[in-house]
Amino acid sequence: MTIPVTPDSTAADTDPRPLTMFGPDFPFAYDDYVTHRSGLGAVPTYRHGTEVAVIGGGLSGMVTAYELMKLGLKPIVYEADQIGGRMRSHPFDGHPDVVAEMGAMRFPPSSTTLFHYLDAMGLRTEAFPNPLADSTPSTVIDLKGESYYAQHLDDLPPVFREVSDAWQRTLEDHAELIPLQQAIRDRDTAELKRIWNDLVVRLDDQTFYGFLASSKHFASFRHREVFGQVGFGTGGWDTDFPNSILEILRVVITAADDHHRGIVGGSQQLPLRLWTDTPAGMAHWPDGTSVRALNGGSTRPRVTEVRRTAPHQVTVTDSSGEIRTYPAAVFTAQSWMLLNNIHCDDDLFPIDHWTAIERTHYMGSTKVFALVDRPFWKDKDPVTGRDLVSMTLTDRMSRGTYLLDHGDDKPGLICLSYTWSDDSLKLLPLDATERMNLMIKSLEEIYPGVDFRSHIISTPVTLSWETERDFMGAFKANLPGHYRYQERLFSHFIQDELDPRHRGIFLAGDDISWTAGWAEGAVQTALNAVWGVMHHLGGAAPADNPGPGDRYAELGPIRLCD
Ligand code: ARG
């Protein structure tokens, strides 16, 4: 539910300095970097046309490929499945205007680097119908068999306001919420690092649940339980209770769960447009060149092997049997792929980086969608005058139900259920029809008398990311004590101190970022990798637009002792 964690509807909207996903671990202004008139940098002309492998065609891979192309390099993109990765928009036969977002569906405006690429690719966004959001007609909270209908938080029984206040006070008293957000708005990196680094030291060993339970504002178990069930911003977060509280704080302080927008026409368009776009004024390549053109119209297939070959090269084998050798490679797929799907040489990374990859923790996620004849949920109940069906948060199996309106006389889409972790695990053995039936059962208990089935006009569409061969999870979520692993993976693009035999391969993707499960992290780490490749090949960022690697010594994340 939209518990007003950030003072967003009042102070934030009038404050000219927005809350953005600026740090806090590495407060480098990626948004300013990508919009700077001097560009991201240059490689020596003798490097122009050099092939660089980009493994994975999700958002991170496509941003990497696009920016490498603009530097005059030749990105060769490998993709095992479809371009887009977890930005996957599932079409429906005969209904070209509707897509089901199987992965990323809602994007906070605080992801300013992501929004730069959305704008550059000519994509528009619209308000996403989150719980209690301004544009969401109504929300139903259904817990322990009781349903509450609301347009605003204050329409709900007092316990929900108490929980909201308890969270706000806990963040203020135990996580320096107010000064942290002030430092983000001010882009005061010294202050931000001072406060955040102290929290990292204090809280890396703490779970989300432990953090709540140790706050006097959450002395009541019932308050902790309700908070877990309806969560903050976008829904119930109790499946994150075992994760590191630092993961949650990053989301909250950067407004990553606020004011979500959907991409009109589907999320997948962003990676697809980066693939086909023809930017003007690139180094080396003539206007009219796209990443697709450089790849001869299609991506290379699934990668099966990544090897070290002398001197300091990376050799990639794909499922067609083709073997190519590169002076640099960027790996953007889920990091576990390096452990089981792809045969790798040990020398790709130092041993401590392998440990970090092995220990990376991913959460599963399942969605179940049904296409319906029209947005019947907006019909009014003749007795109460309320919407027939609302955006729904519940402790039942469906957990979160989202109503996606495409116009009064057009088919609508219901995300019957969006679940994480254990709630997703419960659905894994079930096929699509069984999943749909289970969710309709939940919803018919919440909305007696509403005949959901009579409106459904498609077979159900469902996906669990944890059982997909090329993903094995929906997003990373660090466990307590994982900060060191995260810091190692994120900082790996700084390679001057590495043994030369470990240089030239770069990691990117939201799982390498500090904000897994947010596209901004995919974009930011892609820009790190692009800087890394540029530096590795003898290039540099412009003097007036230093890149993430140039400012790393000054702004880099705190390193914890062993
Ligand atoms: N950003 C995604 C969403 O809005 C996923 C967030 C979930 N991340 C997590 N650690 N639970 O649904």
Automatic annotation (TrEMBL):
Record domain Amine oxidase: where: 59-532
SUPFAM superfamilies xrefs: FAD-linked reductases, C-terminal domain, FAD/NAD(P)-binding domain
Origin: domain of life: Bacteria
GO molecular function annotation: oxidoreductase activity
Position of the signal peptide: none
Listed EC numbers: 1.-.-.-
UniProt keyword list: Oxidoreductase
InterPro entries in UniProt: Amino_oxidase, FAD/NAD-bd_sf, Flavin_monoamine_oxidase
Enzyme class: oxidoreductase
Pfam family, one: Amino_oxidase
Coiled coil segments of this chain: none
Protein name according to UniProt: NAD(P)/FAD-dependent oxidoreductase
Lineage, opening ranks: Bacteria, Bacillati, Actinomycetota, Actinomycetes, Mycobacteriales
